[in-house]
Fold each of these.
Amino acid sequence: MKLAYRTYGTGKPMIILHGLFGQSDNWNTLAKQFAEKGYQVFTVDQRNHGLSDHSTEWDYEVMAKDLKEFIDEHKLKQAILLGHSMGGKTVLFFEWMFPGITGKIIIADIAARAYPPHHNEVLAALNSLDLDFVNTRKDAEVKLSEFIQDFGTKQFLLKNIYWKDASANKMDWRFNLHVITDNYDNIGVMVPEFRSNVPCFVIKGERSDYITKADEDDFRKRFNNVTFCTIPDAGHWVHAEKPKEFFDAVTGFLAM
């Protein structure tokens, strides 16, 4: 599948992959900052997200193949891969399936292990919202508030609403809610074991529980060259909550 993307700057290629329910423009500000440091940055919409096509196929293996097609199409050599959450796991699957292609790997707040379902509340909220009968973002926010209290989470999700037909007052989701709901278990799976010589940088938020000590040990088994960084007072959305600290940590790793 050809993926929708945005590109910034020139130089060594860097591909950024968003997480579940995200899209490429979530990374605009950081992408521009990386571009100013001499990188050609591609922020990519993974399948069933953003402006990329929708498909009934949705798991990490097909997303890793999409990434390989993107790299081949743009003739990128030794690209740096940066992925957050689901995007990070796509990167790990990519390294398992296509070893040695990348230059460096950056994983933001996700591990290779299997995760139990933990987006049930969000999925229930999204599926409760019938956009055939919701005509404004404010109405959508009120409905989501019945399930989700966190303001930041609601705003993150609402960014995915767009006018599918403004003349008919018809809104829709950018992401493929039906396929994501039906295939949600595919996103919690473990990455098969592999061993890699590619330098890997793992960033976690201090307040996040996505990466444990056991996960760090697992990263060391998979990567011969791995470095860890914890961003103080940050949660799972470490890049959005502490963008300066995240940027400094990544650029420090890339300079090594």
Amino acid sequence: MMRSVFREGETLRQDLTEAEIASIVRAGAGLLWVDLTSSADREINAAANDTEKPGEAVQHVLGDLFHFHPLAIEDCLNTRIESPKVDDYGDYLFIVAQSAVYGGRLERLDLTEVDLFLGPNYVVTSRQMPVPPIDELFDRACENLHLVNRGADFLAHTVIDSLVDQLLPAVEVMDEHIDELEQTILTRPERRLLSEVLLLKRNTLRLRRSILPQRDMVNRLSRGEFGALIRPEALIFYRDVYDHIVRVEEMLEGLRDLADGALGSYLSVTNNRLSEVMKAMSVVAVIFLPLTLIASIFGTNLDYSPFGLTFKAGFYLMLAFMALIALALVVYFHKRGWF
């Protein structure tokens, strides 16, 4: 699916034709934003039994209308999540940015990729799946001239900033979750908590692996390396995005330590409970060990016995002696504080 919005002066136009888009790119005037979603092509082609391969519409727009480099187009059509980066192709920049989708506390964190082309008077965004922040931003751009009246570099900043802003709520939810897990672990260390802690730890590591290259990518955009396409007055806005990423990175470092601590707490509490159980079982075993020995000795089937086989009170004396030993051991263990 392709959506487009174009501003020139006080005029705002939407859903331009391919001929109009090509003319705008050649003229280099105004500001054009083209948004492409390749997953919509798959749905439309499947419903219409179209023989066109998934992504061919996106490839046509990127290659035939904008004449982007084949390597950049290949990255856009790749179904795998690419690492965040920025490539300079002279007349335009190719930027790969990521955001996070965190549906709930017991779900796997998924990363979403948005590919962005920044040109002199245009911004092209491409994604495999719908990304709510981009959809909301595009709808706002169609209604508000403010988003598309400051230049392509400011619009690209707004797109990247909207993606980065989605990271902080995900980290805050994970932070609240780990706090609740730590409290629950100390009171009720159930087995299900271990899987939750491990899932949370994996989500933290997955997001951290995405943050590091994205931080470097935004840092390159914010230090004036691409002066031909990002004006000096826009650099401070990219530095603001960089500060947000650094903040998220610091929170992830703390969250990783908390996850390790929660895992250690679970193992410690579990081991302590196991030690208590083993200690109780050991005390019982020690108490019954001499009693078993006495019963074994006097239970032997021999003609000779210390009290004689015909001694009627021998059985009761043996029971009394065993009870006395058991009581003595219980008192001794209690004084030692073993239970």
Amino acid sequence: MRSLCSAVAGLVAFVGALGAQADTTGPPRPLFTWRDGILAGGFVVGTIAIRPLDARAAARLQDSATQMNRVMTTAAIGFRNIAVPGSVVIGVSMYAIGRASGNHRFADLGLHGTEALFIGEGVASLIKGLVGRARPLVDVKNPDDYQLLRGFRGDDKFRSFPSGHTVAGFAAAAAVSAETSRWWPNSVWYIGPVMYGGAALVGWSRMYNNRHWASDVIMGAAIGTFAGTKVVRYHHTHPGNALDRWLLNFSMSPSDPRSLTLSLIPLK
């Protein structure tokens, strides 16, 4: 069973690493490319392949010996909190610090990472509502408990597919990897694996906590990866977009020695 969990994490990290390479420097690319098709196909294949093993993986992770492992329990809590609310806190803080210090790259990364998080979570929330899949905590032996639109009824127990925490982890990983690969092209070989590996552990933590099936994690990874890479690619192929003009290029300048005036006129 340990090999199964390793395979889930490995598959997510490997397919995610492909996404990390989608935004290296070079000529401008369209928003969607053939590489994105390969990436999407990998996630679809991964979700379908893991699906028959959902119940077995969940049962193994809920084994009493596994649940009594203090290292795993502590790690699961830590990775869960790093993803939500940690990713939002980190993204907003990076944006604020970057703006205050005049570090455009820092602000850029914070803004685009946070935007990717909200877009990814919005898509995931819609799918959760539509699919209405029961979480493993409802019945760890029944991963086939779906009901159309049940997820919109307010009971969180039926909002399992996909994993929102995994979306957050992979959206942050994708945004960071895509941004840094533009600044330092060779960084894709070490920043990407580290970021995506951490995101894979977020997905594992949700399975360990009996909140998600393995297939929930794979789909959450797909949504997060696409949210992060597409947000970064869009902004860098549309440098004059309204969001960047207003949130990255506004100026704070003193109009009087005794006061500081915030100018909302975008800089050119």
Amino acid sequence: MKSNVNVNKKHKSSVFSALFSTPETLRELYSAIEGVEVPPDAIVDINTLSNILFMGQINDVSFTIDNRIVVLIEHQSTINENVPLRLLMYIGRIYEKIIDRVKLYQKKLVKIPTPEFIVLYNGRASYPDHQELRLSTAFKNIKDLKLYKNGTSLELIVQVYNINHGRNPQLMEKSETLGGYSIFMDKINEYRNELPLEEAAEAAIKYCIEHNILKQFLKKNSSEVYNMLCEEPTIEEIIQVRVDEAVEERLEQILEERLEVIMEERLEQGREDQKLIIARNLLAKGSTVEFVHEITGLSLEEIEKL
């Protein structure tokens, strides 16, 4: 059974992922966030995942720098408290991609790139310039168990930065691309207060090109950017799809259960009908009621009615 909600479940690259899809822009972004200068000759390998978890969606951006640091960056318009757990799953898959599994069984220690986890937030809800999210906050309370011991052997810390226009100005100054993206998204939100999404997207693209904001990127990719903005499912649509799918799955389960009951009832009725046929034949041949009862299992009252 398929959902009637018109949402394309295949992943479409977001504007953010498309904008930060080259070694040059990723060096600039990482340098700005970490306050360091990544050398222009540092090798950046993009290893973004595909076809994992929810609705075939990929993680937004992941890359290694000189095979020493692996960076996972998620772009969010809503803060999801489960993002540390999601990133834990992502990093495991990324290590599977970049490490030779055979080497894991050798005696010599296998060196792996150091992971860093970053979320860039540009939603409308109020949020501080910087916040940390920790995986350990999701762990169930086990203090009342005799097995409890202080601390945990597993932790994952996510650095969350608010990239809305006007927030984290030093970060925006260090990365012209990120600053331009912040202004671009701010213009879309501004125009959406008065215009439909399609017209707001067109107006924001035009404004930014005219004001030399992401000019080259938008001129080169204006139609793709427009399609990404207008065709990508919203959070509300995604939630609706999930609700519809849950309802459909439950309806299918109920239908299957009902069919099983009907089939069992029909089989039982068939067995009872067969018993009655056998009983009639035996009685017709002069068999006693007691003998028919023994053979068919029918009650004496049922046999006498025949």
